[in-house]
Amino acid sequence: MTSTLSKQQTENLRQLLRERHDALRAEVRDELLKSDDEHYIDLAGLVHDAQDESVADLLINVNLSLIDTHLTELREIEQALQRLEIGDYGRCVDCGQTIAPARLAAAPVTRRCVECQARYERTHSGYGGASL
Length: 132
Hints:
By secondary structure, the chain is mainly α. It is built from 5 helices and no strands.
């Protein structure tokens, strides 16, 4: 729980999360506006051969993948802020132990202690990951 974090550490993490949240929202908005301006779909319709079509498709997929990555991180930040509000921030979701303050400072959205994260990665490798 937040009891292992000082009030100042908790506020610093809250501020860091909010700043990253705002930055990501701006990036998503900019990417969506940029994709409207670039008209990738129109580009795909104007191509004349398979190679041009592949490039157009790739541009569309990369743009959508970037937006999806940002949205995933936004959800993780919102969940971390919610855990801060209810007083459950800093507790491992698997074992219930306190997550080290240094780990939280390095990765404020983390939900697992180092040991449980390592176990999770071993047992879930390749599971649900994006592929390009």
